[in-house]
Amino acid sequence: MALPRFAPRHAAPAFARCVACGLLAVLLGWAGAAVAQDGAAPRPAQVLVINGADAYLPAFVAIDAAMRASVQRGVDRPVVWLYETLDALRFAEGGLGPEMAEVLARKYRDTRIDAVVLVAEPALRFYLRHRERLWPLVPVVFHSVPSSTVRGLEIGAGVSGVPFDADYEQTLRIARSLQPRARRVVVVSGVSSFDEAELRRARRALETDADRLAVEYLVGATPAEMAERLSRETLDTIVLYLSVFRDAGGQVHTPREVLARISAASGAPVYGVHDTFMGQGLAAGALEPYPVRGERAGELLAEALRSPGVAAARVMAAPASHCVADNRQLERHRLSARALPEGCELRHVEPSVLQRYWWQSLLVVLALVLQSALIAALLLQRRRRRQAELGLQAQRAQLLHASRLAVAGELTAAIAHEINQPLGAILSNADAAEMLLQSGRISREELLQILADIRRDDLRASAVIKRLRALLARHDVERQPLHANQVAEDAGAILRPEARRRGATLELALQARHDEVLGDPVQLQQVLINLVLNAFDAMGASPPEHRRVRVETTEAAAGVQIGVRDFGPGIAAADLPRVFDPFFSSKASGMGLGLSIARSIVEAHGGTITAANREPGAEFRVTLPLAPTHDPSETLASRSA
Ligand code: ADP
């Protein structure tokens, strides 16, 4: 630094000393700051909280926590919290006189206090009275003092705070919207100074209520008396619970514990204004959120700690109250939450089963959807399969029908002959009758005989046609109980003319007596006709005396057996395993379908068909199960008969 040129010579040493002192001071200051920066922690702020009531009341605990958190955010040094409780609820305010101020002054004589927090009205009043003896120059922040009280106090410089306004007007409006038919209000209160101040405020609110309700005051009773009294109330009554710190007998209480007791007994819903009452049986009310009060007090305190000194008095606006309702209490008193004012906060809403188990429900729904989709797919598949089966059945029926037509084709010559015979006989009889009538040589008896012959021959011809028609008609497959013997006889009747045409004998040996099978008579006939026609074919080259076919029915353990035996050359050993294959034929004009169709019919009836060679000839054996309704004891009895 350059020295000023105009400085007188004799003044130089003093000036130099001054500069040196200044430099030293700067260096020391810098060093000090460096030390502070290097590690010396900033001095903690010490805050004394004086609670006028009971610091452990749930409301104060909640406000205090919010206040401390707010201060910690607003101040960049640690804060040491010191607590004093005046407990004005148990001890009259008179007990908080100069002696108490003296005790506190002495207690904290050697303790630096950076700010004082005053909680509740008794603390503020006490402090304002004894400020000079206590900490006159220290900033003060108060909270939880009613606005009306604050307005009437001369709080002076250096004091700031957050008052509160119990909103009884709004609470009454909420109660009346929930209970529009209520005609009475029962106001419940204690007798502590706080209780009485609240009572005055509630009374004012009730008096300004436009549509006045009948008001009854229940003040100073014990909780037991109150509970008993309120148990007789109904939904015609609104119960307004203020606070009960002390009853008329001098017993001190915690207000929310009293509330829990009386609301459990009350027949009418209970309303109130304090945040910590919610969940203790309060149905609804205009509540001030305590954390907001705490936060605002914390902001004022942080401000005071950041810029110490006595600032002008500053009172913040009381935090606004808003509607809160307890859904459990509404449900208990059958009150509709829809009647609440708009924007009202509804607490303790039990989540529905769906909301509570939403992911499980989702899984169940998904599983059901998947299951339904699977069932739908299976049903669709089943339907398609059924359609395919029906289509197959229809085709099979067509094939069987075509096969019967083919058989009929084979039998045409024999059938024509069979019909021709009676027709010829009818014609001859008719000619004879005509001649005899013309000659006039016929008696009445002779004429009747001729007519009887004509009728018999006609019936014979129509029986042949009937049988053929039954075989050839398209029909729905039917399962009916039938006797194997009957099937054999019907087939025999159709085949006999063909046997005659071929010069063969058809023998029926029907030994199955009583057993019934369940089947389609036409299809089973078709099987027998196929087997017998094959037998006739096989014996085509045999001498006429050997052309014999024997159809036999027998009872067997597995059911009823129908055997078709011929006395021809038998089946070539190499062909035996293939005779039932479709399109296998050893005949020049054979289609090779007869036996495969026969097998499919027998198997569709749950039976079996086998082929074997005998000495001489071949034998086919069809085994059909008995009808399910068949009584085995009856069979045994009839067999032994
Ligand atoms: P198709 O009569 O058109 O040949 P089938 O399926 O009815 O068709 O018969 C298949 C083959 O089985 C016949 O060609 C024949 O070789 C053999 N067969 C069937 N029945 C007899 C039988 N009673 N004796 C000898 N061979 C037989």
Question: Can you list the strand order of the major beta sheet?
Answer: 2-1-3-4-5-11
Q: How would you classify the quaternary structure?
A: single chain
Unreliably modeled segments: 1-38, 632-641
Task: Report the portion of residues in β strands.
Answer: 15-25%
Helix content: 40-55%
Largest sheet: 6 strands, parallel
**Helices and strands: which structural class?**
alpha/beta
**Computed CA radius of gyration, to the nearest angstrom:** 60 Å
Q: Give the ligands present.
A: adenosine-5'-diphosphate
How would you sum up this structure, described in words?
This protein is 48% helix and 17% strand. By secondary structure, the protein is of the alpha/beta class. Strands 2-1-3-4-5-11 form a six-stranded parallel beta sheet. A five-stranded mixed beta sheet has the order 15-17-18-20-19. A four-stranded parallel beta sheet has the order 7-6-8-9, with helices on one face. Strand 6 (184-189), helix 7 and strand 7 (214-219) form a beta-alpha-beta unit. Helix 2 packs parallel to helix 10, helix 8 (223-230) packs parallel to helix 9 and helix 16 runs antiparallel to helix 17 (594-604). It is rod-shaped, with a radius of gyration of 60 Å. The relative contact order is 0.06. Mean pLDDT is 87; it is low at 1-38 and 632-641. Bound molecules: adenosine-5'-diphosphate. Adenosine-5'-diphosphate (ADP) binds at residues 530, 534-535, 538, 566, 568, 571, 575, 579, 584-587, 590-596, 618.
